[in-house]
Write a structure and sequence with these properties.
This protein is mainly beta and about 190 residues long. The chain has one helix and nine strands, in the order αβββββββββ.
Length: about 190
């Protein structure tokens, strides 16, 4: 191959190499482009400072629950790295006591009933799940949403006489109420 054909191949090769080098440089600076932006939601509820850090995927025209997110299978809400709940005070989700600390959040979605799973493992990829690390499971309440929510939202909000950890996406709101343990100090 010679002439214009070879020149075109060399140009394409140079573009591919330059693109790879630019992506590697961005990753090394911690600026990797993500389809799902990452954020941390902060709340103070009854003196507890609660942070939820996660990737926020979009619906992008997809059916989410019962589609992209199958029912009756463990799912970590979010994208990329594990979704993390941090609290500086102990929380009680009904029967489940959650000491101050950092935890991964998983769910078990179903058509009629969801469960929130609080897991001791942190730092893993969102698709990695080790059931032996579960602190416990809590039933979640479910309500329909209208209009639909395009981008996944996970947050701690004031609720009744305490708070609730809630997830909103597509046409679904699920939440688990909690109370802050009185006098529970930080780490």
């Amino acid at each position: 191959m010679g002439g214009p054909g070879r020149a075109a191949v060399l140009i394409v090769a140079a573009v591919v190499i330059a693109s790879g080098a630019a992506a590697a440089a961005a990753r090394s600076r911690g600026q990797e482009a993500r389809l799902s932006p990452h954020e941390s939601n902060h709340a103070t509820i009854d003196g507890a400072h609660i942070t939820i850090t996660y990737g926020r995927p979009f619906m992008r025209g997809r059916k989410i629950f019962g589609g992209l997110v199958p029912f009756d299978r463990i799912w970590m809400p979010g994208a990329d790295e594990a979704t993390i709940l941090q609290t500086d005070r102990a929380l009680d989700f009904g029967h489940l006591h959650v000491p101050a600390g950092s935890y991964s959040l998983y769910t078990l979605p179903a058509a009629r009933q969801w469960q929130l799973i609080i897991n001791r493992q942190t730092g893993q990829w969102h698709t990695e799940y080790d059931q032996s690390q579960d602190l416990g499971r809590i039933p979640m309440r479910i309500e329909p949403l209208s209009p639909p929510v395009e981008q996944l939202l996970i947050q701690a909000v004031p609720h009744d006489s305490g708070g609730a950890l809630e997830l909103r996406w597509e046409r679904t709101l699920v939440y688990a109420p909690f109370s802050v343990e009185p006098g529970a100090g930080g780490r």
